[in-house]
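@channel anyone free to eyeball this complex?
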Amino acid sequence: SQKIEQNSEALNIQEGKTATLTCNYTNYSPAYLQWYRQDPGRGPVFLLLIRENEKEKRKERLKVTFDTTLKQSLFHITASQPADSATYLCALDPTNTGNQFYFGTGTSLTVIP
Amino acid sequence: NAGVTQTPKFRVLKTGQSMTLLCAQDMNHEYMYWYRQDPGMGLRLIHYSVGEGTTAKGEVPDGYNVSRLKKQNFLLGLESAAPSQTSVYFCASKTWSSGNTIYFGEGSWLTVV
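replying in thread with the prediction:
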């Protein structure tokens, strides 16, 4: 079956450390992949998009990598802060048409002061 | 600019009852989506629309119907609610010019007893 899997366990890290979240997919060949942040009781909010021809994308303290051979994207938050605590979701377009988007299960990140 | 608005925010239904969730967006977006989010399952696409008057099935369409009579509105209907449809429902929208960024509503919490 087609799947998008993220870190199955919640991730707890110390403030100031780098958090690394994983998104693995099977049976897809996405031209791009997205990352979203979701706070409790709220809808997801877009963070970053990375294309298949981009090895790495950065935005402030966020960095995303995309390895189409491994079928994996890594999402890094450097110098993490308690305000970064949230659930992070990866998403891809299974048909590369821009029509629909499938999401991973999400990883809950807690940054401990 | 309200973005994506969902109504109602909370609803309790009895098994077998019907209801409609309304999603309205004021961004003139072409694409609209309905997702459900359940613990451990992530966001799953129910139905989507690529433009006014069009609808298509997503990953988990059974038990739901949708309509897109006006560009700004996307309705999700439950004809005969079942306890398995207890979930948080998110509406989302996007446009080509947003670079595939998806904008989500705040969610609708539905409980079927």
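from a first look: The radius of gyration of chain B is 13 Å.
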